[in-house]
Amino acid sequence: MNERSIRILFAVSLAVNIFVLGAAAGAGYMWHTQERQRDGAGDQRGLRFAAAGLSPEQRKAFRQALAEARRQSAADIEAARAGREQIARLIEAEPIDAAAVSETLASVRQADMALRGRLEQAIVSFATTLTPADRARLVDGLRGRSNMLRRAREK
Fold it and tell me: Which end of the chain is least crowded, N or C, by CB within 10 Å?
């Protein structure tokens, strides 16, 4: 082999190695992001994730408390859903009946507030069963996941 052949072989080897390293890095990144999603470390915005810092038994009790509050609010949830559908129909109608839209919005708001009140009461009732340290972890979890503590900041 002459010097020119060795240089060409070296350049091809270098290009292949760079390609393999890039593919391995890309595969590692994809694996890492999929693991995070599988572990639940991805986007956890729902209220049920507020208890993520608690023990598995406490998380289960928290989810059960939220589910019970939702069961008790089934009529309000259905009324709000139906009201939103009615609002859409009223807004699409020609001519628009602003008074009917406002009235329906008020009833939807009332149903939403009833649900919110039950959920917040369920959270407070659950919090009374926790130790101070666990309550602090719950508060950390509630920040950003609940209207209850939306603007509350740690001092």
Answer: C
Q: What are the residue boundaries of the structural domains of the chain, listed by start? A: 1-42, 47-149
CB contact at 8 A, 104 and 86: yes
pLDDT in tens, 33-87: 877 666 554 455 678 888 888 899 999 999 999 999 999 999 999 999 999 999 9
Mind listing the pLDDT tens digit for each residue in 118-140? 999 999 999 999 999 999 999 98
Q: Which of 141, 115, 113 is nearest to 127 (CA)?
A: 141
Token pair listed for 10: 């070296």
* CATH for 47-149, options being 2.40.128, 1.20.120, 1.10.238, 1.10.357: 1.20.120
User: How far is residue 49's CA from residue 62's CA, in Å, rounded to a whole number?
Assistant: 9
